Amino acid sequence: MIDSQKAKEVLLQAQELACTRGDRRLFESLEFSLSEAECLHVIGSNGSGKTSLLRIIAGINHPTKGRITWSGKPVLNNHSSDTEFLANLAYLGHKDGLKNELTSVENLSFYRRLENTFDPNQIDRDLAQMGILEHADISVGKLSFGQRRRLAFARLLRSEFKLWILDEPFTGVDAEGRELIEQICLEHLATSGAIILTNHQSLEGSSLAPHLSELRL
Amino acid sequence: MNSTFILFCRREWQLLFRNTANLVQPLCFFVIITLLFPFSLPLENELLSRIGGGVIWVSAVLAILMSLDAMFKADYNDGALEQWLMHPRSLPIAMLAKVFIHWVATGLLLTLFSPVLSMAFRIPTDQIWVLFIGLLLGTPSLSLIGAIGAALTVSLHRGGVLLAVIILPLYIPILIFGAGMITQSSLGASIDSQVYALIAILTLAITLTPFAIAGALRITIE
Description:
Chain A is α/β, with parallel strands linked by helices. Chain A contains seven helices and nine strands.
């Protein structure tokens, strides 16, 4: 296992990362690295800063201290202007960024157009893969939570995203949906992508286990 | 077809007609507030036509102020703002597109309705034009400046009052020049200086506020 990991390129590296929320120190001198085909499971109790860490990596929040490097190059301190890095990652948090008023296809098309990868046939294929093609023309507000979640994942099905940052990806999905999400995660890892995720339950028994590494906050 | 501005305009335009409340509410508010004045003031011929322009301006400012609170709320609540924040595409340009469509749905619509309302105040025809041009040049600045306040208060549950306190003082210059135009023209004087002032404010607003809006959003969404 260690040998096979060595050959893989290190994608993301965090050094001396620290985060303070108000007066509370969430974590400090946090160090970790993430290689291709690796799934990093961030573990911690409620309020230990899991979501904050994920948002810092995604560039939505700023760390109090520390450095992040991507493929060996330091990510600019002002994350938001580092378009090269940002183009590589997809973040899916508690909120999914989907518009209630628009249909599944319209929601997905907007994001694909933003990412310059719009292709109507591909969108149909992605929706079919997530098993929600029959709801393609229903406004997202009428979908169930689990279906919404599947649609949110359909957005990630793009090879340009090397790093998926998933906050509680299995919350609110049924067993079938969970299997599906694990499946696309595995496919993503197989194409030398990487995943950082948080989850309350252990993932040891899941199909992701061979790729798994853990980070305790 | 893939420029950030066009993409966001299209999306906002689509959303506008899926959720027509945002389109209808400010307009109704504007019309009703304006029409309360002819009903409540003494029926002196001169009085209404003298104050009409000012009343329409104040109503327009209030209607736009009322619509600001919802500007980023939905995008904040469903996480779309987070996605844009971490997107390689330019956030200021995206926000400029958003504000542009907001203006079309509020400011432009109010401006188009203002000549009709002017009749209730018996404003002379040549001054209706002055009012129209003033609103056309002034309301985009109102939307742009207001968006900064909307961005700053987006994470607050009841940010409406705070938003008004932050934004209304900034609206005063636009109100002075906009309403001043009508007074000026009723005296038969030239309105060039006010037009230039409004254009100058608008130019500044278009070039600077998108960055302020983007900055405000980055600070607020922590």
